[in-house]
Design a protein that fits this description.
The structure holds three protein chains of three kinds.
Chain A: E1 3-16, E2 19-32, E3 36-40, H1 47-54, E4 62-71, E5 74-75, H2 81-87, E6 92-95, H3 109-121, H4 129-138, H5 144-148, H6 157-169, E7 175-179, H7 187-204, E8 207-212, H8 215-221, E9 224-229, E10 232-237, H9 239-244, H10 249-256, H11 294-298, E11 304-306, E12 309-311
Parallel strand pairs in A: 3-8, 3-9, 6-7, 7-8
Antiparallel strand pairs in A: 1-2, 1-4, 4-5, 9-10, 10-12, 11-12
Helix pairs in contact in A: 3-4, 3-6, 4-6, 6-7
Chain B: H1 2-13, H2 19-24, H3 30-40, H4 46-58, H5 72-107, H6 112-126, H7 129-143, H8 155-185, H9 188-195, H10 200-238, H11 243-252, H12 256-284, H13 286-293
Helix pairs in contact in B: 1-12, 5-6, 5-8, 5-10, 5-12, 6-8, 7-8, 7-10, 8-10, 9-10, 10-11, 10-12, 11-12, 12-13
Chain C: H1 2-32, H2 34-55, H3 88-124, H4 126-141, H5 144-155, H6 159-186, H7 189-197, H8 201-238, H9 249-256, H10 265-292
Helix pairs in contact in C: 1-7, 1-10, 2-3, 2-10, 3-4, 3-6, 3-8, 4-6, 5-6, 6-8, 8-9, 8-10, 9-10
The chains are: A alpha/beta, B mainly alpha, C mainly alpha.
């Protein structure tokens, strides 16, 4: 099967005291085997929630209110918790964002990695300490046997991130979800971690969803990039298209705000994400969009094929209206 | 530690009234009082007195009780086991009840039982212990005649006092357990554990409970103070022959050496217990371990 | 210099706006919390009762009449009579002065000392900080009741020693709390700007640092009121507090203890009052804390 993951009309809402936050609102896309799908967006775009939903980590007050997540043909949302546990950590592995808080401070690193193996093989973590050391070596941690008996506070940020990675790949998952794996690291370490992730993916033959706010990074490493805004997909295409010809105004804004040519001025996108409790009707980006017109404010644009990729913007419907480029 | 000694000493020396005269009695002549004063070393300047006192304390000599005429330390040691028994029993009951209740109300925060538990904890912090003790005596001793109301004759005598004291501790302990477990459960490493595919029991035990123990142990350590204070009152109400009731008695009889000795002893014991708690800390939280012994 | 001045004034007006907004939110939140509101009413009622006792009590609280001793509540004596025939209702009203008065004074005193020390420690830092905090640590290590007992044993019984004892046992917590908040604020820009302009340290501390710590202090004071009521009555019960025949509620319980089995009301009634008062202050403290800042949950102590 070429399609590993097929997400259809997924809706994930958070039910809070003062309203319902529509974190992921009617998102659909597919993930092909062996590819790296990058999901880009700012905080609050829904990208992390999307990743959590796929891994079955949504907990109250969050709730999946609609849609399907087809993983290798089976709808994950119909699974019982006991069946979920067979998939989590084995067929779907998650690498989390903050290596400091995502590791348990009172257990050794080796124990926690071994735990990942124990979860699907029975027994106790003590039986898997060798496997844990192997895994630590796989993520290129030097002096693995000694590190295995260290506690998290004795490791650097980069090393802890590698440990999290080794936990995610412990059982050779088919799908690796990397949720902002580089955001908490120094720039120098980021490159190493990303390189490691890509190599592992190739070694294991997995597919990867790489979630980050760092769009230029995705331009380098992803096979396809999905840009999200306020719970919706606004553009989805190859790096080539997105780098050279970004269509959606938000994508363009994102790129312009990180231009790293020395002469160009940094432009930030004015305004901020709308409240996700009662988002404005029409296109969610309209309040900040320099090209918005009346139609944008009234009718929500749907994703359409334009120029080799998907875009959700009225500017690109019916082939016309794209004079302001 | 020295600071604590100093504080106690200063407090005792602030006493208005003249210890020497008290010992001698109102009919003694001026010379006699002076003699006693010399004997007790009260005529030397304060700081020399303090140094001598510290020296004698280290030798184990807490002075002699005025009332009983026997060394203070003997009196204390005679009644100490009772207090320890009471304290241990009370702490055991409190922990046995408060921890499970706390964990339960953290995991199922909206059940009626949880809300009931929270209400009881709040009540516990507002109830006067001595009053509660009296009421319990009334119910269980006078009306129901199940348990004896004072003294320390049999194991039955232990039940009411230790239970009362336990109730004092439970209110706070339940509350802290609850909030500590809730906080641990929302920590990120729990998400990691779930993402590994671990089953709920293991996640709970290893990643929630173990981590939540840290603040709970802290509070248990801090509660030793309340335990001692509460023991004083409980012993008095139940006529339990421990050092708490001895302290109150000695104050009433103006037996200063005894009172001072008891307070000093309690403070010392307190300091030692605190050190022990720090040590236990190190066993549970590895981060502390390296800091302490490095 | 100019820059510092304008910055300072800008921040000042910002702060003022925030403060008024916060005050409004606080009152709103308080009003919503039924328990806190009820507690407030109860406290006011009890204070009123104690104040009324200055002008009027149904009977003379000190006049004893052995003929009518130990009578259960009746029409003529709504709360009954105690072991010496004194009317309990009158004694409760009068005794409220002690219980509430001692607690108010000691808590305020403790707060004053503690806050002052905390601000000094946090603001000046360095040696001052270490010395003050070392003292605070030693005192925090002591169990409160024991410290109070020791102090009373040394200084003697009575209202004054109770106030002293309770103030001394409670000031450390304020010092620690306030110091924490001060340390947070001290590094903020407007303090540096104020220093640059040349405001005296004293002014800075009072006008800027203090108001920010207020919310924490008030909540802690409410909790400590509850605690000090329990403490004062405990000492009264033990015979180390307000001495008989003064009708402090704890002392009343101590006095009625001998006849407890036969006529429990002498003991039960003052205890109920103690309990309700303490509970009210605790609930009020909870309400205030929720209204002011949910973040503070971990720091405060109920005692």
């Amino acid at each position: 099967m070429n399609i590993v993951l097929d997400v259809r009309n997924l809706k994930v809402y958070y039910e809070l005291g003062n309203g319902v936050v529509k974190a992921v609102d009617n998102v659909s896309f597919q993930l092909y085997k062996g590819e790296v799908l990058g999901i880009a967006g700012e905080s609050g775009s829904g990208k992390s929630t999307l990743g959590q939903a796929i891994a079955g980590l949504i907990r109250p007050p969050g709730r999946i209110v609609g849609g399907q997540i087809l993983f290798k043909g089976k709808n994950l949302l119909e699974l019982r918790e006991s069946e979920w546990r067979k998939i989590r950590g084995k067929e779907i592995g998650v690498i989390f964002q903050d290596p400091n808080s995502y590791l348990n401070p009172v257990y050794t690193v080796g124990f926690q990695v071994a735990e990942a193996v124990e979860a699907h093989n029975g027994g106790s973590p003590k039986h898997y300490i060798h496997k844990a050391i192997e895994l630590l070596k796989m993520v290129r941690i030097a002096d693995a046997p000694r590190r295995a008996i260290n506690y998290p506070f004795q490791l650097s940020g980069g090393m802890k991130q590698r440990v999290l990675t080794s936990i995610a790949i412990a059982n050779k998952p088919e799908l690796i979800i990397a949720d902002e794996p580089t955001s908490a690291l120094d720039v120098t370490v980021q490159a190493e971690v990303v390189e490691l992730l890509l190599e592992l993916k190739k070694e294991l033959g997995s597919s990867m969803i790489f979630i980050t706010h760092d769009l230029p990074l995705l331009l380098e490493i992803a096979d396809r990039i999905m840009v999200m805004y306020a719970g919706k997909i606004v553009e989805l295409g190859s790096p080539h298209h997105i780098r050279n010809n970004p269509l959606h105004p938000y994508t363009r804004g994102l790129l312009e705000s990180v231009r790293y040519e020395r002469k160009a001025k940094l432009k930030s996108i004015p305004g901020s994400i709308p409240s996700l409790i009662s988002p404005p009707p029409g296109c969610r980006f309209a309040p900040r969009c320099p090209f918005a017109n009346e139609k944008c404010r009234k009718i929500e644009p749907s994703l359409r094929q334009v120029d080799g990729r998907l875009v959700a913007c009225h500017l690109f419907n019916e082939g016309g209206n794209d004079g302001q480029r | 530690m020295i600071g604590a000694l100093l504080v106690v000493f200063l407090i005792m020396r602030i006493l208005p009234g003249d210890p020497a005269r008290l010992i001698a009695g109102p009919e003694a002549s001026w010379e006699d009082v002076e003699n006693i004063r010399k004997m007790l070393g009260l005529d030397k300047p304060l700081y020399i007195q303090f140094i001598e006192y510290v020296k004698s304390v280290f030798k184990g000599d807490f002075g002699k009780s005025i009332k009983y005429g026997t060394p203070v330390i003997d009196e204390i040691l005679a009644r100490l086991p009772y207090t320890i028994l009471l304290a241990v029993a009370a702490e055991a009951i409190a922990v046995a009840l408060a921890l499970p209740l706390g964990v339960y109300s953290a995991l199922k925060p909206n059940s009626t039982l949880s809300r009931f538990i929270s209400a009881i904890s709040l009540f516990g912090a507002s109830l006067p212990i001595f009053w509660l003790a009296l009421i319990l005596i009334y119910i269980f001793s006078a009306k129901l005649k199940w348990l004896p109301s004072f003294g320390a004759g049999s194991w039955k005598h232990l039940i009411l006092p230790s239970f009362t004291l336990a109730l004092l501790l439970m209110g706070n302990l339940t509350r802290i357990t609850r909030s500590s477990v809730m906080e641990a459960a929302s920590m990120n490493h729990v998400t990691t554990a779930v993402a590994k595919g671990l089953d709920n029991g293991k996640v709970l035990r290893r990643h929630v409970l173990r981590v939540s123990m840290i603040p709970i142990i802290t509070i248990m350590g801090l509660q030793i103070g309340s335990l001692l204070g509460g023991a004083v009152i409980t012993e008095t109400v139940f006529a339990w022959p421990g050092i708490g009731s001895l302290l109150i008695d000695s104050i009433f009889y103006r037996d200063y050496p005894l009172a001072q000795g008891i307070i000093l002893f309690i403070v010392l014991a307190f300091v030692i217990v605190n050190l022990a708690v720090d040590f236990i800390y190190g066993l549970i939280d590895p981060r502390v371990r390296s800091r302490t012994w490095s | 210099m100019e820059l510092a001045n304008t910055r300072y004034n800008n921040v000042l007006s910002q702060i003022k706006q925030e403060k008024t907004k916060r005050r409004r939110e606080l009152l709103e939140a308080l009003r919503k919390n039924k328990w806190a509101l009820a507690s407030l009413y109860i406290i006011i009622a009890l204070c009123a009762m104690s104040l009324v006792s200055f002008i009027y009590t149904p009977y003379n609280p000190f006049q004893f009449n052995l003929a009518i001793a130990r009578q259960p509540p009746s029409l003529s004596h709504p709360l009954g009579t105690d072991e010496l025939g004194r009317d309990i209702l009158s004694r409760i009203m009068y005794g409220g002065r002690y219980t509430l008065g001692i607690s108010f004074i000691s808590v305020t005193l403790g707060a004053l000392i503690g806050v002052a020390l905390g601000i000094l420690a946090g603001y000046y830092g360095g040696k001052v900080d270490t010395v003050i905090m070392r003292i605070v640590d030693i005192m925090l290590a002591f169990p409160t009741i024991l410290l109070a007992i020791a102090l009373v044993a040394a200084v003697g019984q009575g209202v004054k020693s109770l106030i002293l004892a309770i103030s001394i046992t409670t000031f450390p917590v304020y010092a620690r709390l306030v110091r924490g908040t001060v340390l947070q604020i001290v590094n903020e820009d407007y303090i540096t700007a104020a220093k640059l302009i040349g405001l005296s340290s004293y002014k800075i501390m009072v006008k800027h640092v203090l108001p920010n710590t207020m919310s924490v202090i008030i909540v802690q004071m409410s909790y400590y009121m509850g605690l000090s009521i329990l403490l004062a009555s405990a000492l009264g019960f033990l015979g180390l507090g307000v001495p008989p025949p003064k009708p402090e509620w704890g002392t009343m319980i101590g006095g009625g203890r001998t006849y407890f089995f036969s006529t429990p009301h002498i003991v039960v009634i003052p205890g109920i009052f103690i309990f309700i008062t303490s509970l009210a202050f605790n609930l009020l403290g909870d309400g205030l804390r929720e209204a002011l800042d949910p973040k503070l949950r971990g720091l405060l102590r109920r005692g």
